[in-house]
Amino acid sequence: MKDFLIIGGGVIGMMTAWQLAEAGHEVTLVERGTCGGEASWAGGGIVSPLYPWRHSAPISQLASWSEGRYPHLAGLLAEATGIDPEFRRQGLLYLDLEDAPQAMAWAGRVDKPLSRIDAYAVYAREPRLAEGLEGGLWMPTLGSLRNPRLGQALRAMLQALPGIALHEHCPVERLVVERGRIQGVDTAAGRFTAGRVVLCGGAWTAQLLAPLGIALPVRPVKGQMMVFKTPTVTGSRQWLERVVLSGGRYLIPRADGRVLVGSTLEEAGFDKTPTREARESLQASAVSMLPALAECEVEHHWSGLRPGAPDGLPFIGEIPGVAGLFVNAGHYRNGLVLAPAATRLLVDQLLGRPAILDPMPFQPAARLAAADVLAATG
Question: What Pfam families has UniProt attached to this entry (predicted)?
Fold first, then answer.
């Protein structure tokens, strides 16, 4: 029997497995598809909440802790695996922001570099942006990475660690619970057992818990994105060098010149089909920010399922009523953003170590009990 069994091979599940293995534990990880192939692959890779001042203090604390770790983490993975996650710290331009005063007040409280800049400064940073801009807000410390490469690097790292047994294309059929304690899982490849089980199933987490009578309020929220292939540029700057955010949509540059645009927010269950309406909307948003993209090929259009949770607050901790069963899910649009801190927070609980920050806001027991009371009185 392994020490730990992790369900889900996204960034959250893989980082959890890595930390537990490095602490000397034997870990089994089961993934329904390919590791890093769902929401971790489908996102944009911005290493910050899009509008951090609009989030609660617990989310901000997780995000701040994680943001400081990504440069080292990306470098470590590149050196160890030969796969570069392409971490870039080129900053973020906010355009036409309605709550700029609130953003500036937040930056002052948390000592975050954020400044108002005029049109000249905007175009000095990104000369190809649409004409007529009067200025914006500039956050120079924002970083981004190429999330598919991050997933590939994490997967390669796990494959190289002797304490980890990785089972892909192995969907979980049911959680095995006996006398109030988790024993393991039944899968298409047979039963896997472990002393403790960690659910990192993203949008599918609630489905796994439902047969146990546990209603975890984590739902799929569809998001569609596209990537443009810009002309090859040598010896000068790319068409876009920095993340640009306007009207809830963003452009993300890649090191090879490609430009991503995202994303939609859709309540469509588990349907991941890209739609023509979203394609047209995303293209219009991209061209409105960077008109030259109208001349570029849309190389790929895809969708993913984010694990939405109430208030965007993930569930991190032990599931009440089932001893040994833990969860780390519900990160919504911030799974990659929060992953280093969210996984460290849970691993600290699993190993009995002091927590990096207050774990109480994320604990499933209190939040599920509150939801039950609300349902009973509502």
Answer: DAO (PF01266)
The CA-CA-CA angle for residues 76, 79, 81, to 5°, reads 100
Q: Which of 270, 279, 323 is nearest to 300 (CA)?
A: 279
CB 206 within 8 A of CB 196: no
| Amino acid of residue 329 | A
For residue 58, CA distances in Å to 95, 159, 323 come to 27, 33, 26
Beta bridge pairs of residue 185:
175, 192
Q: Which residue has the tokens 């000095």?
A: 124
Give the pLDDT confidence of 18-70 residue by residue, as tens digits: 999 999 999 999 999 999 999 999 999 999 888 999 999 999 999 999 988 99
The pTM is what? 0.94
**In CATH, 92-140+222-306 is 3.30.9.10:** yes
Q: Which residues pair with 226 in a beta bridge?
A: 261, 301
Over residues 299-309, the pLDDT tens digits come to: 999 999 999 99
The residues pairing with 5 across neighbouring beta strands, listed in sequence order, are: 28, 197
Architecture of domain 2-55+148-218+310-377: 3-Layer(bba) Sandwich (3.50)
Token pair 């499933």 is found at: 364
Residues 6+ apart with CB under 8 A from 296: 228, 229, 230, 231, 259
- The rounded distance, in Å, linking the Cα atoms of 181 and 136 is 54
